[in-house]
Amino acid sequence: MNRSRTSRRGGRNIRSYTVEPVPQKSNEDSPKAGFPASGELDQILDRIRQDFGDSSDIVIRRLVIGHKTTKLAALVYMNGLVDHKSVNEFVTSSLLDTTETEPDSNDAEGWIQFLLNRALTSGEVQVITEWKDMLLSILSGNSIIVLGGCEKVISVGTQGGEARSVTEPTSQLVVRGPKDSFVESVVTNVSLIRRRIKSPDVRLENMKIGKVTNTRVSIMYIQNIAEKRLVEEVRRRLESIDTDSILESAYIEEFIQDHTFTPFPTIFNTERPDVAAGNLLEGRVVLIIDGTPFALIMPAAFPQFFHSAEDYSQRYDISILMRLVRFVSFIVLILGPAVYIALTTFHYEMIPTQMLISLMAQREGVPFPAFVEAALMETAFEILREAGVRMPRAIGQTVSIVGALILGQAVVEAGIITPVMVIVVALTGIASFAIPAYNLSIAGRLVRFFFMILAGMFGFYGITLGLIVLVAHLNSLRSFGLPYLTPLSPFVLSSQKDTILIFPFWALRKNESASNSGSSQGGKQAGQSSGQNQNQNQNQNQNQNQNQNQPLTPNDERKAENKLQVEPLGSETGGKPGRWGKAIHELPGDDSSNSSNTKGGGNQTS
Question: For residues 317 and 550, which has the higher predicted lDDT (pLDDT)?
């Protein structure tokens, strides 16, 4: 019989031709959602077996604890999710080797306190009173101690099992810099960040998302650096997620991003702990999801996707060159084939004479126009790229060699494609690999076909129209209220030190060091010149009141509008300066801001 079920993304329905099962009441709807009223050990253990369907990986060990006064107990855990060494040394040994005076056998609360305070040697111990919390604790890798005649259980932290060790990053490689990367464990990933930022201001908040998977999601930020409105907005969007499963960070990215219908990423992801730590110092929020090595960073701006971790490990002049190469590579990626199509189809007069004669000689035996050539070659290159990713490593090199021979030499000798088109497509493919962010590279590959169609229809006029639409689209995007083209549009001069160019470290830290030195000198002289400071403050207030009554010049109005639209992090509203000066972020809806601030960039929640 047909029935509909929700896919793992929690969205569209898929048809499954299976027999409709008999509906069963969940534990939450059942009147016996809590522990048995009598607290009998056998009833509790039987119900645990029933809820897990008599699974073979559920381990239940009965124990008799105490010497003078004995008590029936049981240890329950999930095989494969616990560290057996921790279970044996810190749980089982602690229960069987009690030397203290035990409470009365009928005193259930006394036994709970006795085990918590005197018996168990594990550092992570918790009392659970709800049945569903106990099941979730077992599935999280904890060991449960069940006492006979007690309506509470004790959860002991024994998470373990097989896990991948910390290795070198696979997608964000550097020549000079840290070589560690995130793994699929939240605890390990958090520790990698805390090793780099040894500050008590680093805040960590945990929540469970997914009705079925109960995936752990951790929110990390630095107090007094990250704006409170940003943290509250991230927390609100996460709490509004209603889905059955979260298996990867991309699920959460789709739920919380501002704009859904855009090929450009509005949330940054990374597998490098040093990149996550650097963004925390700039006032951003980092999300770490259990089961994936990629952390989400928000808010994100378009220039951020061209930055590499190696930019801060090399000299600034070398980093400037590499950044310029990346921006040029992105332009070549989206406009390379389109410019060739426009030149060879509509604008012959822009090609030098000698080159035009050579191109015409090459195209003499080619039966397809330039647009069809480019479409065929780009499609074949995308197929080859996807095949190289999916093929096993043993034969991946063979596929690359065969593809190069077919796309390069064979199609030219057969007269299907001109040699110049092969060069253009190869240059475009190489340019796509120069962009550090893989998701932005994919977006550029999609936009490239859009420009090819416009160039094939209207030439350079179509390319110009496409550029206008592209810039307008990028300017309309927001990432948690942050304009996507910040600090280029709106232009913020103080943030240009680490956008397209990168200044030396002493220049990046100049503002912060100046403010710190000024504050320290002011603290030393505060007792000596307090009266003079008060008089100066009064004079400044009077001057400000006089200036407010004077009309603003057009230049001052433009500066005031830019300040309302974008407020730097690290200012008076944002807290301390960040890692490389002042990052940019502004969330609308602040009561203290002007009404034009709300009109400038509204927060759009998906």
Answer: 317
Asked if 345 and 456 count as a contact pair (C-beta separation under 8 A), the reply is yes
The predicted-structure confidence for 144-188, as pLDDT tens digits, reads as follows: 999 988 888 999 999 887 888 899 998 888 888 899 999 999 999
- In a 10 Å sphere around its CB, with 0-12 CB exposed, 13-18 middle and 19+ buried, how is residue 470 labelled? middle
Give the separation between CA 213 and CA 292, rounded to whole angstroms.
Answer: 14
Which residue in 21, 24, 23, 18 sits closest to 2, CA to CA?
18
Structure tokens at 519: 């504050």
Look up the pTM and report it.
0.76
What is the C-alpha to C-alpha distance for residues 157 and 124, in angstroms, rounded to an integer? 5
CA 268 from chain center: how many Å?
5
Residue 328: φ, ψ to 5° = -65, -35
Q: What is the pLDDT of residue 368?
A: 86
**Inter-helix orientation angle 41-51/131-139, to 10°:** 60
Counting other chains too, the contacts that 562-568 makes at CB distance below 8 Å and 24 or more residues apart are: 562/490, 562/491, 562/492, 564/593, 564/594, 564/596, 564/597, 564/600, 565/483, 565/490, 565/597, 565/600, 565/601, 566/483, 566/486, 566/487, 566/490, 566/492, 568/492, 568/494, 568/495
Q: Of 554, 552, 568, whose CA–CA distance to 492 is shortest?
A: 568
Which of 165-174, 455-464, 525-534 ranks highest by mean pLDDT? Answer: 455-464
Spatial neighbors of 26 by CB under 8 A, at least 6 apart, are: none
